[in-house]
Amino acid sequence: MNIDKVVLVYPKRDGKILGKAQGSPYTLMRLASLVPDELPVEIWDEDVAPIPYERITPHTVMGITSKTLSIERAQQIAAATQRRGARVVVGGTHATLAPEEVSTWADITAVGEGYFTWRQILDDIAHDRAQKMYVDESWANLAGVARLTDRVLKMVDEKRDYWTPYMEITRGCPRNCSFCTAIRVSGRIMRHRPVDEVVEEIERRDIKRFFLTDDNFGLNFRTDPTYIEQLFRALRKLPLNGWTNQAEMMVGDFPDLIQLSKEAHMDKFFIGFESVNSGNKRDLGGKAKGNIAEYKRVIKTVQSYGIGVVGLFVFGLEADTPDVFQNTWDFCKESGLDNVSFTIMTPYPGTAARAQYIQEGRLLDVPWSKYDTTHVTFQPASMTADQLREGYDWICRKAYSLPSIATRGVRTLRRHPMRDARRKLFSSFSTDFGYRRTYSYRSA
Ligand code: SF4
User: Fold this and answer.
1) Binding pocket residue ranges, ligand 1, CB within 6 Å
2) 328 and 374 in one domain?
3) Strands laid side by side in the 133-136 sheet
4) pLDDT tens-place string over residues 257-270
5) Same domain flag for 130 and 178
6) Does the structure show a pLDDT above 90 at 424?
7) Which of 140, 146, 315, 403 is the most exposed place for a label (fewest CB within 10 A)?
8) Domain that holds residue 68
């Protein structure tokens, strides 16, 4: 096939908020950077602009990346593209978790890390030898992988079109939480990008703040402190306004690295406490144990270095009874968390939790679009589905009410010098309003 252009598509989910989409299409930017120079490439982010179907020709190759919750939209885009005679490649989380399902409608399904198969797929299409499915779960070294090209950086206006630039420094997580999809998509081997490549990318993108998409960045404090120290010492020299990452509570055991992270302009840890219920230990793969005294100690320790803590909690784990909502809310108020995120346990394809629910006949019949962590998709073990739904609504209404958001904003402000007030308030409100918006899908 003679390819006239390659188009990479991100199906619509959030749309724009105050004129910008939430986060930059980082995965697509890296995949677009792998397209050989002689082929035109474009990124179509449906959160930023509608898909210009009239520009698709029979010689176009369209790559769609999709999570589970947007896979039905991805399928619609694929069908409209195929009607114009073009070839559709589907990759991303859902294609990796449910490849057989996706391959019933995609021309080509890319399972695992597209960074390592994308070029081959394009080459095979160009030479009319493409296979139906490509699998890469080798969890290869990240050095030199998918370096952002200048043509892609010109194509995506991260400052004009997006509120938050995304960034990746590490991939993978060796833990094994029963509900986790990240380990199926990124593997259980923790891998690092070379520090000089990270610094070079930040400088070339000219970004002053970013959200790290790494599955469990904080675990590296324990597993690879030397790498983390080198990274922080390098980031310390950059003129960053702040960055955030996902971690687990054991970061609180490394005060020297927390201090260094502050010097490296880190703004917040998003910590997966997951549950205040110690009966849920088994579901959490060893990372959190429901010990709320310990949770409070970690929050206090991190905040004492001038870094914020966003607490992440999931409801509907096996030992959760209806009182988990009140207990969690009490903890959130007492602990002084800067922001809170609540999600409903969601049995994504390929997870141990889903396999168990299927075996026990507990899976509810709901479309993938409801797999957004705000809807109940299974029958919980220790309460009814209605109790889970109502308890979740109750705690979200409490946590994301305007007075609660204002209270947390003021509390955060008090811990920082006045010169940082504007930045800290923006950070606090943008996180809380982001979660308030996510919760609003419940009533959609
Ligand atoms: S710690 Fe986080 S990334 Fe690691 S397995 Fe558990 S949920 Fe997944």
Assistant:
1) 173, 175-177, 180, 182-183, 215-216, 248, 272, 285, 287
2) yes
3) 41-45, 5-10, 60-65, 87-91, 108-112, 133-136
4) 999 999 999 999 99
5) no
6) no
7) 403
8) 5-136
